Predict the structure of tRNA (adenine(58)-N(1))-methyltransferase catalytic subunit TRM61.
Amino acid sequence: MFHEYRTTVAEGDQAMVYATPECIYPITVTTGEVFNNKFGSFRHSEMIGLKYGSKMRSHDNRGFVYILHATPALWTQVVPHRTQILYLPDISFISLYLDLKPGKVVIESGTGSGSFSHSIARTIAPDGHLYTFEYHEQRAKVAQEEFVQHKLADVVTAEHRDVIKNGFGKSNIADSVFLDLPAPWDAVAAAKDALRKDTIGRICSFSPCIEQVQRTALALDELGFSDIRMFECLAKDYEVRTVPLPDIETAIGGQKVNFRLSASDRKKRRLDAQTSAVDNGSGDAKEMQVSKPVDEARGHTSYLTFAILAPSE
Ligand SMILES: C[S@@+](CC[C@H](N)C(=O)[O-])C[C@H]1O[C@@H](n2cnc3c(N)ncnc32)[C@H](O)[C@@H]1O
């Protein structure tokens, strides 16, 4: 279901119940089950046959939710955090830079909560394969169960393994390797071994500290990787608010107004509050919509170190 799309909800589907942007719940559609939240009670049996994206009223008519198709992007928003996870700005950038597409073979470690694994699997399906390794036994087991439950088992092989001690156990098969490990530099030799020798191999290491980047870059250089580059992805969210538009007398409040703003100040003010008056048809706009960056912008997650391995055959 995560890498195939269907239009209507069916028994056994992993669906997403969307109440608000902050309240999204994964469910397995099961006749006899009822989903309850503050907006009311929703019978799974009444979801079956609905078109994905449909609005569903609660049984007691208290409110409504939307029934959405499961996607890796939604899963990243709802996945139970057993570890730190990758979020969408990093996921999309890494996927692009590692040149992930259908048919590619990818090696990942650690699996962690499986947030990135779901996106990789969807991107390389149906013919590609992801081998993901995790040394925490319980985490490896839960991730493996989720891949089966999400019908990704044909695309993902999850293994409980310490890749620093034991390598990946794979040679000359991977198009790309992704490392999210505390000591990625110790896995670079194993990554080199796992990468295909007949084409360009790509590697990315995801590390929160610049010292980790330095050691990984040195290891990559020593082992013959090239085009070593580091990026940081920072997403800036904007929200749209409707605010009252004061008339000119209220705005100036009897104060002396400085009409002599420089052109650059006027431009800056316009950009700061990208305003567009709500047109009520009469030209008497009383409100305006402003778009502003949200007060709490998410900060640094990690540095992304990329490199390529030229073909040796
Ligand atoms: C930050 S988490 C990965 C999160 C994952 N990228 C995601 O998006 O959900 C890092 C994981 O690496 C695992 N790990 C650390 N050292 C390891 C090793 N030597 N071999 C395999 N896994 C390891 C940890 O147990 C942890 O679960």
Notes: The chain has ten helices and 16 strands.
